[in-house]
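Cross-posting from the modeling subforum.

Setting up a comparison between two proteins and wanted a second pair of eyes on the formatting. Protein 1 (sequence, then structure tokens):
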Amino acid sequence: MEMHPIIRSLKGKLIVSVQAYPGEPMRHPETMAQIAEACVQGGAAAIRCQGLSDIAAIKGRVEVPVIGLWKEGHDGVYITPSLRHAIACVNAGADIVALDATDRPRLDGRSFEETVHELRAQCEVLVMADCMTIEDIRRAVEVGCELVSTTLSHNKPAIDTSLEEGPDIDLLGQATSEFPGLPIICEGHVHTPEDARAAMEAGAWAVVVGTAITHPTSITSWFCAAL
């Protein structure tokens, strides 16, 4: 099957995640849209964002693809946790919808596979699978997701603490070896340009950076801790 032009356009590029949460100083759609525009001026090839208001505001501000998701809750499946959430992201303007690709229970009782199939039946949209394990990645490839990402790899129970300081290069390498040529995205704990470069050298199609670019509270805390 021919690769979608949006997916081709992301190869070797940086995707920036622009997100803020309730109670944080920058929690406003217009602020998120301004930050997204600044990231695009710096070279971001796509913007990943969460919440319907942010998706709509950012889509109206930038010309690069928008990866939309809707987080609800903090435990289990909280990244676009139902078909209703996914369709709402499309209606808000997302070019790509990000879904939790694990096999954990979802709000509406559908499986990941059912969600993807029903979303495609109702909407014309690309799907990004946020994965925790190689099994999730295999599931996402089997169902035909256009993008597959290591987003949730640091959320594994009893996680190996060696992952805490950087991206999950081991999972990325396993995925790119098992599925050569497929768009495997590195996301999660990419905190430095060196991390991003290491991900590309490990075979990533593109790299997502969020906190290290768009969350000044966290960045400031890193410097304070170092001092």
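Protein 2 (same layout):
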Amino acid sequence: MNRLRDLREDKDLYQKDVAKYLSMSQTGYSQYETETNDIPTEVLKKLALFYDTSIDYLLCLTDERKPYPKSFLE
């Protein structure tokens, strides 16, 4: 997934850095970037928060990088 790689590189991070944040192996995270494995919903949430964007942006459903406004239900 190019968006994941681009966001990571924009922050000057390595795959191992993001994998550590997600409490997983670098290899496992790499499989998300290369679309070898689907990303679980909970991981998508963490990545959206980490990169301050929306899950829709991560999944290339929108080109709007800004996150949605926070819900009052949180």
